[in-house]
Amino acid sequence: MNITFLGATKTVTGSNFLIETNKYKFIVDCGMYQGVEVREQDKNYDEFAFNVNEIDFMLLTHAHIDHSGRIPKLYKEGFRKPIIATKATCDLCSIMLPDSGHIQEMEIEWKNKKRVRKGEKPLDPLYTSEEAIECLEIFQPVKYDEIVDVNEDIKVRFNDAGHMLGSSIIEVWVTENGKTEKVVFSGDLGNNDLPLLASPTMIETADYLVMESTYGNRHHMQNENKAELFLDIVSETLDKNGTVVIPSFAVGRTQEILYELNKLKETKDDPEFRKKYETLMRVPVYVDSPLAISATEIFKQNTDLFDDDVKEAMSKGDNPLEFPGLKFTKTADESKALNESNESSIIISASGMCEVGRIKHHLKHNLWNPNNTILFVGYQAPGTLGRKIVEGAKEVTIFGEEIAVNARVEYIEGYSGHADQEWLLNFIYSFITKPKHIFLVHGEPEGQEVLRDKILETTNIPVTIPEFGEVYELNDEQIKYINKVDEPVQYRPLRLEAIERISLLKEELRYMEKLVKKEILVESTRDEEIEKLNQKLKDLEQMIVKVLE
Ligand SMILES: [Zn+2]
């Protein structure tokens, strides 16, 4: 059989792999590229590198958009064969894919306004919310741990990956010419101590392993005090009558925070702690993200997947996703009302990196006030609004308005849905029959290289870090590199990227102008410092002139 790597190659988004046997073709995951670079997002518009009509079925590891986000596009292009995934993944896709369609529509509307003003042709969205709903009909739910015969030659088994609700490590057995070989796709592997969910399953045998490597060079901080740190920050803010705004991924992280908030009550018996806890329980906690609300519902419908501690608590009647004071705001009006009230509260809202969604309104209304806290609980990618705030920007632009950052900004590390280096290695070490070859995907090159060296050092299993389009023949002796499919032609030209860079530059210049003006007008600034600044600005001016030439 052959495997072709068509996404998540030396990057963390766009997962997509093609397997061809002598009789069948199937894909594993069909995710969206989600980088902040326009160029990266444009890849979503590229044609698929395979003929959609020749694919016999698809396997989906989990519902995250970087693994599932191009399914509606696949369907739009005529794919009607089954997509096999766990029930929870199917449930989550039923809300996440339409939501993704909605985001596509909104983004294209915004881009088209600009294009029309410039006399350019408007673009179509990648897919609409409605189109995303249509593709749900081909999803075929399966259970964890059961071997499913897809056809006479191919069997699959989904195992809990502990990364998000319904996430799976997929074992695939392929029989060709009377001989069976097994490929394991790790999907995204969870962190060992993720709240709510069970730990990742350890797989016993594989001939070939395709493994994620997001944190190939990282060791997670052991953060047993996360909940206490959280409580301290929150109660200090509430003591000042401030509001705590938590930008959070709608699916997964939000439910983890709700669970931890609920769990705090049993952790300690100390009076100081009690006092803080009571302060916390007095204020309303709003979950303000329509997607997070639906996702929380789906979590409640799939409690059989929770870890044993949680199940035990539930058998005693304690629902880990419910507590007094918790309120869900459904409508846009209810959401707006949060910003008009002076009441101190905790607001959990998406998106987690502050790029889209209701969180932007909450930041706009709360960032200026020094009594408030913006509490980050997840990774912020470079270039995002969240990253700017975490890195200490004094001012940010939200909806075209400049907002001063006076609020306290905090970042609690240790909430992560991905295994770190130690756990990625443990996953490999725990195979009883070790894979003959490992392919590392879903990671940045630096992390992947460190992880590859670690694997080679400790196991002697050969490791490949594939590039986009590389095809490998998986046979008994050794894997064989056969060829490389071409990178598809860019759907949209580079021009758009250049234009966006100019507007970014303009924004930066405006910000710089303000800073510099402030500096120059201050009497205490010495002449030689002004002179230095002057020289730097002159250099900058010359650089811009050179670019134009
Ligand atoms: Zn994921």
What report would you give on this structure?
The protein is an alpha/beta fold and 549 residues long. It folds into three domains: 2-219 and 416-484, 4-Layer Sandwich (Metallo-beta-lactamase, Chain A); 226-411, 3-Layer(aba) Sandwich (Rossmann fold), CATH 3.40.50; 495-548. The chain is built from 17 helices and 23 strands. It has helices spanning 38-42, 65-68, 71-76, 87-117, 129-134, 226-239, 253-267, 271-282, 290-301, 308-315, 332-340, 359-366, 385-390, 421-429, 445-459, 495-521, 527-548; strands spanning 2-5, 17-20, 25-28, 57-59, 83-86, 139-142, 147-149, 154-160, 168-176, 179-185, 208-212, 244-247, 285-288, 326-328, 346-349, 373-376, 395-398, 401-404, 408-411, 437-441, 463-464, 470-473, 480-484. The strands form four sheets. The protein has an eight-stranded mixed β-sheet with strand order 6-5-4-3-2-1-22-23. It has a seven-stranded mixed β-sheet with strand order 7-8-9-10-11-20-21, covered by helices on one side. A hairpin with a 4-residue loop joins strand 7 (147-149) and strand 8. Helix 4 (87-117) runs antiparallel to helix 9, helix 6 (226-239) crosses helix 8 (271-282) and helix 14 runs parallel beside helix 15. The longest helix is centred in the first third of the chain and has 31 residues, at 87-117. 40% of the residues are buried. The model has no long low-confidence stretch (mean pLDDT 88). It binds zinc ion. Zinc ion is lined by residues 62, 64, 163-164, 188.
